[in-house]
Design goal:
By secondary structure, this protein is mainly beta. The chain contains one helix and 26 strands. The chain has a four-stranded antiparallel β-sheet, with no helix packed on it. Strands 4-5-6-7 form a four-stranded antiparallel β-sheet, with no helix packed on it. Strands 8-9-10-11 form a four-stranded antiparallel β-sheet, with no helix packed on it. A hairpin with a 4-residue loop joins strand 17 and strand 18. It starts with a strand and ends with a strand.
Length: about 400
């Protein structure tokens, strides 16, 4: 994956209808706003000194009616816009994890780990609280209110004994209170879920966000809280993960993007203990983890799906290594192909930026998606930007 970006046109390209299936390819979704580093007429690397309008490999995105939040992962920071940005390259209002909008680096500027971040990925605002998965510091950061001032330290830290500690699994073995590369966070139903990727598991806390040091109530993907082997130390199965990365769902459905096994697993009703998944997308069965790296793709195969987002029974999946977002108008129960695809000319294509120039409607390794109402935000990591799409 390259961090080079190309920009040749400011005019959105309207995707063509998919002639192979008769399905309207984009489903009415069109690019609306471009956020991130521009590259007019040529190639550009992320700036050595970033600005509040530039990004480097963003991997997570969230928005609602009040905020847009981006995990600007390569710059080890989180960017916040108060209100939905309305113009291309609009700078963020607030930066967290760095002392200002031009500093980058892990736990930068000598501020230590309390205010610093190391590859933040998952971001979420829930009931007015900002939640950030500070993945390579092996912890979850929580602000009681969304900050309106840059550099505001978090109010709570989960997964470490103190703000100075950043060791995987608290420097010990895996437990119900420890984390190792937590990449994804979600509130599904009334429970708080963390994709604890380095431990190859998903942790759940009943009743929403837990108090500091409260152990998880449930573990998925491992036989107990001490286990951390890939696919439980064996072959892929209905209750195992390789790289669980993102979580979404509804009151009666939990979906987990298991990127390393090239699939999305689902549980309905919501699990209250470790048990096999009863929904599957991206593979022909629950014991297969095949990758299709070459040749034509299709709408029911995934290659490293790093993110998924649901809203009102609609589902968007970031099919990351196929450089596309797949979209279902209703959550599939039978492994049916996607109803729509964004960023590719057909459901069979998978080229980075369609093997051409970067445009408003092309993608290169999309790592994060967030669906809300008639808008979809995509963390287009390989193009160092976030694209906001809108359904017309």
């Amino acid at each position: 994956m390259t961090s080079l970006t190309v920009r040749t046109s400011l005019a959105p390209r309207v995707p063509r209808a998919h002639t192979g299936t008769g399905v309207a390819l984009s489903g009415g979704w069109r690019p609306e706003v471009w956020l991130g580093a521009p590259a007019p007429g040529g190639l550009a690397l992320p700036a050595a000194s970033p600005t509040l309008a530039w990004m480097y490999s963003p991997r997570g995105v969230f928005f609602d009616d009040r905020y847009l939040v981006v995990a600007d992962s390569g710059n080890h920071r989180v960017l916040i816009w108060h209100g939905m940005p309305s113009t291309d390259e609009q700078p963020a209002d607030v930066v967290l994890g760095q002392p200002d909008g031009v500093t980058e680096g892990r736990a930068a500027a000598g501020r230590g780990t309390e205010n610093g971040m190391n590859l933040p990925t998952g971001v979420l605002v829930h009931e007015g609280r900002l939640i950030v998965a500070d993945a390579w510091h092996h912890r979850i950061l929580i602000w009681r209110t969304v900050p309106d001032k840059s550099g505001t330290p978090p109010d709570l830290i989960l997964g470490q004994r103190s703000s100075a500690d950043v060791e995987p699994n608290m420097g010990s073995t895996a437990s119900a209170s420890s984390l190792y590369w937590p990449f994804g966070v979600a509130v599904v139903g009334s429970n708080f879920w963390v994709a604890d990727t380095g431990n190859r598991r998903v942790l759940g806390w009943f009743g929403g966000l837990p108090d500091v040091n409260r152990p998880a109530d449930v573990v998925l993907g491992q036989p107990d809280f001490a286990g951390r082997e890939e696919n439980r130390g064996g072959q892929v199965g209905p209750a195992s993960f390789r790289w669980p990365h993102a979580i979404t769902g509804s009151d009666d459905l939990l979906l987990i993007a298991d990127a390393g096994d090239h699939r999305v697993l689902g549980w309905s009703p919501l699990p209250d203990a470790d048990r096999p998944a009863d929904r599957l997308m991206g593979q022909p069965d629950l014991h297969t983890a095949r990758e299709w790296p070459y040749g034509p793709q299709c709408g029911d195969r995934f290659r490293f799906p790093y993110a998924a987002s649901m809203d009102d029974d609609r589902l968007a999946v970031a099919d990351t290594a196929n450089n596309r977002v797949l979209f279902w108008d209703g959550v599939p129960r039978d492994g049916r192909p996607a109803d729509h695809v964004l960023a590719q000319p057909t459901l069979e294509a998978n080229g980075e930026n369609r093997w051409s120039a970067v445009t408003h409607d092309s993608l290169c390794w999309p790592y994060g998606v967030w669906l809300h109402g008639d808008r979809l935000a995509v963390a287009d990591a390989g193009n160092n930007r976030v694209m906001i799409w809108r359904r017309s």
